[in-house]
TrEMBL record:
GO molecular function: transferase activity
Name the UniProt record assigns to this protein: Glycosyltransferase
InterPro entries attached to this UniProt entry: Glyco_trans_2-like (IPR001173), Nucleotide-diphossugar_trans (IPR029044)
Matches recorded under PANTHER family: GLYCOSYLTRANSFERASE, POLY-BETA-1,6-N-ACETYL-D-GLUCOSAMINE SYNTHASE
Domain of life the protein comes from: Bacteria
CDD domains according to UniProt: Beta4Glucosyltransferase
Key word Cytoplasm present: no
Protein family (similarity comment): Belongs to the glycosyltransferase 2 family. WaaE/KdtX subfamily.
Domain Glycosyltransferase 2-like, first and last residues per copy: 7-120
Signal peptide positions (record): none
A Pfam family assignment: Glycos_transf_2
Keywords: Transferase
Amino acid sequence: MPITGLVITFNEEKNIGKCLDSLFQYCEEVIIIDSNSTDKTVEIAKSKGAKVYLQAYLGDGPQRTYGLQYCKNDWIMNLDADEFLDEDALAFIRKKEYENSTIDAYKFRVKNFLGNKLINFSGWYPDSKVRFFNKKTAFPSDHMAHQYIIATNEKSVNVHILHYGWESYKQVIDKKNQYSTWAAQQLFEKGKKVSAFKPILNGTVAFVRCYFFKKGILNGIDGFAFSLIQSFFSFMKYVKLINLHRAIK
């Protein structure tokens, strides 16, 4: 049963070539939904044989949903441009057990890297995501950030995606800052309200959990830094939500 690769991109010229080389190992076609990149992302993608469609960014979930209309196959491998299947995940795909299964979405474990350093502490491993699903019965949520796949029959498998998302702490913090903005906006649109104490409480709990209970304390300055980053996201999400409500008063 053939697979379509689906990737959403914006200025990914550093990653898209390797991403496509990896996807074409097991995908019959690859669809790129590009958010009007200003670098060579589109040029590289087309040169590698991907089909490219331009769409101004709609948010994480909606952008992926938009791309499904161009995917001719039911089974979708929906990776980010900086994600690649590890050898165990490639072996899982090549066995093709999914073809005769009632499962319509598979959740893989994610290995996150800062540069070439594996971040397997502070709550960053075992991370997991559904990236492989059947579009007949499974589909992305409408979340602006941290979308997930809504499926009929999901299964977690102990195979891995390699995520080379950041080269520096600045990139990690910038991404978390953007995610906190989107998360706050989504909570605001749902009418969610919180007290002024909520950011402090959640930020503190996030740090304690990641640093003391998720092995951050055993990983030196990196463990402390990634615990703080998790705390920062939780804190800023609710601070921004409070400010959104203040702005309409």
